[in-house]
Amino acid sequence: MGVRRFFALGLAAGLLFVLPSNAGRHDTQAPGWFRYALGDFMVTALQDGSIDLPASAYQGLRADKIEALTKRAFALSANGVPTSVNAYLIDTGAHHILVDAGNADCYGWKLGGLTANLKAAGYEPKDIDIVVLTHLHGDHVCGLAAGGNRLFPKATVWAAAEEAAYWLDEKNKATPPKARAALALYGKDFRTFKPSDAIAPGMTIVPAHGHTPGHTAFLFESKGAALLVFGDIVHNHFVQFAHPEVSVMSDANRAEAIATRQTIFAKAAADNTAVAGGHLPFPGIGRLIKDGDGYVFAPVEFAPKP
Amino acid sequence: MGVRRFFALGLAAGLLFVLPSNAGRHDTQAPGWFRYALGDFMVTALQDGSIDLPASAYQGLRADKIEALTKRAFALSANGVPTSVNAYLIDTGAHHILVDAGNADCYGWKLGGLTANLKAAGYEPKDIDIVVLTHLHGDHVCGLAAGGNRLFPKATVWAAAEEAAYWLDEKNKATPPKARAALALYGKDFRTFKPSDAIAPGMTIVPAHGHTPGHTAFLFESKGAALLVFGDIVHNHFVQFAHPEVSVMSDANRAEAIATRQTIFAKAAADNTAVAGGHLPFPGIGRLIKDGDGYVFAPVEFAPKP
Asked: Does B58 reside within a domain?
């Protein structure tokens, strides 16, 4: 018998049995952390949560082509494009640096898994001494607060000077009030950087403006290994790796966002530098391979040792 | 400053600091289990381990094209093609069915993570009452034994009649002795099936011969949701989704293996049926989307709830 009949068989088998409902089944998920070795550094990817976003509006490609690509995302979820919210902890030996702090409960989304996943991975919030923010959208900032207090009591929090100037301006209504409140908890421990600043050994500030005025990536390097934690350079991996010329509505400056994405993709692919994305499928770490006019993303694969 | 300078900056920064070695870093990985809800059933993907295989010999595509595709795998590991060894536990409410049992220590590979991951996921080996084997290669069979005893004391173990006839023939030197010994531990609890047999409600036998003489997939269905656990239909996801016409050396009957792969891919893509593969990147579950003459694999994405 060939495989062609398998669905017909399936239907037939379904009619033969009545199954009990499976009330006693385990329905917890594995914890949302993943370790990635980077020379002497150890990177821990941390998931704050995942949301099914409505298909966003993309520009820069024929509508039918975009539809065909986003259909791939909808093969996974009828509710929308599955979108992870990731943060990255880099233990350099000298510092515990957290890149982005998760969404917690901004934008009406109930995420906030960051703390539990941080603890499951063997850390406590007090272990973090540096937080660097790729940008000040709520889903990267609101997780700095927990119950009205600093989640990271010992951390200095950093963002680009351009980013702070834009988003912390009281006239900018787009900033979620909770994001501004979370940053305010850090008082003088919230600081801004210029591109030439060196905040911590092994970490380089890489301006990557466009998505927001001061959007920044961070390059971590140890013993010849490199990881570029690049925040919101990509929003839809089904579309934008193949078509980096496609922009998303939330990009503040689309032309600049596209140019930045093109530059970063080209360099990371040419040098086989690993990248980590704030909204790539968890753990969100992988490499880019040039493929025609676009790129293919090769995500890291799970293995028992980092 | 633009992003173009980022690697130059990185090198400069690297020279400015001397970092302590990171001896106190956490170097454990997250546990290798992943839950996937399927109607009233609950599926738990379990990783036995992962190996970097040498680039296998593929047939059916120009050598330069194959080289370009396998290069994507080598972007992730210089040691070879990262290859996961997966098993799947399906809790149907009536049964705990394990599809494949992992490699343990066959072929000289030290894997054997299945038991620890099963326990981390909330199960004990004695909970398993049915084991179905896609085929009798050692990396699917050897994990039935632990320390010379049955790992699954209460399970009946099943394989296709053609598969048992071929691999258990003493004249067939290709069977690892440990695989034969593992099966022997189950005595009369090792049984064979014909395609028309119904072993458990909600599970359908789907002959998928070619990789081995009795290679079999298993279709699980609950409340309109379906998952085809298809064993070794794919060995290299970088090559064979785009080019299902490419065969791998370990396929016993290449023409049949290719025809089976083409049929299963086409059907799964047309019906948007989820698939789970014994060697796909863990957790190895996803959907196929038709793309030109081949397919794109859209893996499930990690989320805090199954």
From this structure: yes
Query: Quick one: average pLDDT of A83-104?
Result: 97
- Reported ipTM: the value is 0.92
Interchain CB contact of A124 with B (< 8 Å): no
Contacts of A98 (CB under 8 A, 6+ apart): A87, A88, A89, A90, A128, A130, A131, A132, A152, A155
Asked if B151 and B143 touch (Cβ cutoff 8 Å), the reply is: yes
In chain B, positions 128-187, which contact chain A (CB-CB < 8 Å)? none
> Which residues on chain A are in Cβ contact (under 8 Å) with B20?
93-94
Contacts of residue A286 in chain B, CB cutoff 8 Å? Answer: 76
Which pTM value belongs to this model? 0.94
**What pLDDT is stored for residue B14 in this prediction?**
46
* Nearest-by-CA chain A residue for B237: A298
Residue A195 sits at the chain B interface (C-beta within 8 Å): yes
Domain count, chain A: 1
pLDDT band at A71 (very low <50, low <70, confident <90, very high): confident
Q: Is some CB atom of chain A closer than 8 A to the CB atom of B24?
A: yes
Strand residue runs (E) in chain A = 33-38, 41-53, 58-59, 81-91, 96-99, 130-132, 145-146, 149-150, 156-160, 190-193, 203-207, 216-222, 225-229, 247-248, 274-276, 285-291, 294-299
pLDDT band at B2 (very low <50, low <70, confident <90, very high): very low
What is the spatial distance between Cα A163 and Cα B173, in angstroms, rounded to a whole number? 67
Shortest Cα–Cα distance, A240 to chain B (Å): 15
Angle at which helices B254-271 and A6-16 pack, to 10 degrees?
A: 60
Q: What are phi and psi of A285, to 5 degrees?
A: -110, 140
Among B166, B118, B175, B169, CA closest to B146: B118
Would you call B160 helix, strand, or coil by DSSP? strand
Can you tell me the mean pLDDT for B9-35?
A: 77
B20 within domain boundaries = no
Residue A181 · residue A167 · CB < 8 Å: no
Residue B71 belongs to a domain: yes
Question: Taking a contact as any Cβ pair under 8 Å apart, which residues of chain B between 72 and 91 contact chain A?
Answer: 72-73, 75-76, 82, 84, 91
Task: Give the whole-angstrom CA distance, residue A141 versus residue A100.
Answer: 7
CA distance B140 to B126: 19
> What CATH number is attached to the domain comprising B40?
3.60.15.10
Which residues of A fall within a CB distance of 8 Å from B2?
Answer: 207, 263
**B306, part of any domain:** no
In which band, very low, low, confident or very high, does the pLDDT at A157 lie, cut at 50, 70 and 90? very high
Rg (CA), chain B: 21
Segments forming the whole domain that contains residue A131:
31-299
Torsion, CA A55, CA A58, CA A62, CA A63, rounded to 10: 30
The alpha carbon of residue A152 is apart from the nearest alpha carbon of chain B, in Å, by 19
> Contact, B211 vs B259, CB < 8 A?
no
SS3 B144: helix
Q: What is the mean pLDDT of chain A?
A: 91
The amino acid sitting at B216 is T
β-pairing verdict for A225-229 and A216-222 = antiparallel
Contact A202 B264 (CB under 8 A): no
Between A20 and A136, where is the model more confident? Answer: A136
